[in-house]
Amino acid sequence: MTEDAVPAGELYTDGFAADPYPTFARLRTERPVCPVSSPRFDSWLITRFDDARAALTDPRLSKDLYGPGQHYLRIFGPNSEGLNRNMLNSDPPEHTRLRRVVSQAFAPRRIEALRPRVAQVVDHLIDKMLPQGQAELMHDFAIPLPMTVICELLGVPPQDHDRVLDWTQVIRTSGSTRRPPQEERAAVQEAQLRLHHYFADLVRAKRDDPADDIIGALIDAVDRDGTLSEAELVTTTFLLVFAGHQTTADFLGNAVLALLTHPEQLELLRATPQLLPAAIEELLRFDGPLPVASPRIATEDVEYQGVCIPQGSIVGVAINAANHDPAHFTDPDRLDLRRVRGPHLGFGHGVHYCLGVSLARMEAQIALAALLRRLPGLRLGVPVEEVRRLPAASPFRGLLELPVTFAA
Fold first, then answer.
1. How far apart (Å, rounded) are the C-alpha atoms in residues 282 and 323?
2. CATH number given to 8-405
3. 375 — phi, psi (to 5°)?
4. Angular region, 62: left φ>0, alpha ψ -120 to 50, beta rest
5. Going by C-beta distance under 8 Å and a sequence separation of 6 or more, which residues neighbour residue 198?
6. Which GO terms describe its biological process (predicted)?
7. Integer Cα distance of 144 and 140 in angstroms
8. pLDDT tens digit string along 300-332?
């Protein structure tokens, strides 16, 4: 990494975790393509909208982390292959083959059929919170909602939901505990190992007792024409569980916090509920759960904004920085639920565009509508500066806790 890299002290602090957008604005203006140092790995960061959109489809920026360079070792560590070698970390034609098998399960028509069940889960969670007049919204609502939905889609037995949730939360909250780093790494590796063994066992069990769920469909793809290998079947299951709940949970927390800290926008949405679909897009643009797209590798020297990114470099596309680019969004740091909808990068772009976009939008619409309707007087339970967030080094932007109060 070059000497002029943006140091970790600028990007991985509590202040940056609380509000990264002033730093992103400075980088967009002064260093739109720059090397950065981080506690996890060094990389290059792209922050302007046009560059970000181009980079997300640039074939020179490979997603294949498990190829000859074995770049996953720098990013995920030596124990990651059993869970992370999947379509997220692959290029066409491998990505095309893997995604095709799963995409039918997430077709908009099939997802729409889930609407009554999602509404039922939402109401059940709110029913449990209502008598208390207060809640920790991440633990009580935002996390269990998408976890329940994706586990049911996949066919994870109800009695196992909590175990799977606990293991994924160890990975999600890595870096936020007070344990020594070595103990933290060991805990994450243990959770990864347990998840791998669990999904491998679940696949074997479903092979013996087939079911009409996504894992059953994946097993059928393996047995019918070898579309997936056994190892790919397990890693795909893990990807769907993690991706299917993590970003939606973090989005819900971010969205509620944004509304509670912008009361005029909250009241606008209460008074004009038909704004909700557009509001979700604006909330995603305003403070999305994936600040930087998953890593890419430069397969050759690549130039953006006159800056050469050397071959072999890890490249991060700063989605949240791009979504605040004033060249594309008027007054981008203002939350405006009436904003004329333009293209944002919150769901990605290109062949890696979010597979679960229909499910995520539906869950968000039902969840936010129900919270606003059923929790009158919803407000923060602590001063906003006391809201605990995921650490800045996390690949996700989300909340550890969101205490709220409301009329019981």
1. 10
2. 1.10.630.10
3. -120, 75
4. beta
5. 160, 163, 164, 167
6. antibiotic biosynthetic process
7. 7
8. 999 999 999 999 999 999 999 999 999 999 999
Q: Read off the tokens for 16.
A: 């940056």
Residue 332 to residue 310: CA distance in whole angstroms: 31
Which residues, at least 6 apart from 32, have a Cβ–Cβ distance to it below 8 Å? 46, 47, 48, 51, 304, 305
Q: Which amino acid is at 54?
A: A
- Output DSSP code: residue 62: E
Q: And the tokens for 159? A: 């009695």
Strands 134-136, 61-62: parallel, antiparallel or unpaired by DSSP? unpaired
Which residues are within 8 A (CB) of 287 and not within 5 positions of it... i.e. 6 or more apart? 254, 255, 257, 258, 320, 397
Token reading at 125: 């969670």
Helix (H) or strand (E) run with residue 296 in it: strand 296-298
Cβ neighbors of 374 (< 8 A, separation 6 or more) are 123, 126, 130
The pLDDT tens digits of the residues spanning 99-130 come to 988 887 787 888 888 999 999 999 999 999 99
Mean pLDDT of the chain: 92
Q: Using CA atoms, how far apart are residues 187 and 25, in angstroms rounded to an integer?
A: 36
Comparing C-alpha atoms, which of 21, 23, 39 is closest to residue 31? 23
Q: Which residue's entry shows tokens 């769920």?
A: 213
Element (H, E) at 245: helix 230-260
Token pair 């990389």: residue: 43
Helix axes 357-374, 115-129, angle to 10 degrees: 40
3-class SS of residue 389: strand
State the Cα–Cα distance between residues 334 and 323, nearest whole angstrom: 12
Look at residues 92, 244, 75, 223 and name the one whose alpha carbon lies nearest to residue 154: 244
Q: What is the largest CA-CA distance in the chain?
A: 59
pLDDT digits (tens, 9 = 90+) for 196-249: 999 999 999 998 888 888 999 888 888 877 778 888 889 999 999 988 899 999
Token readout for 249 is: 């949970």
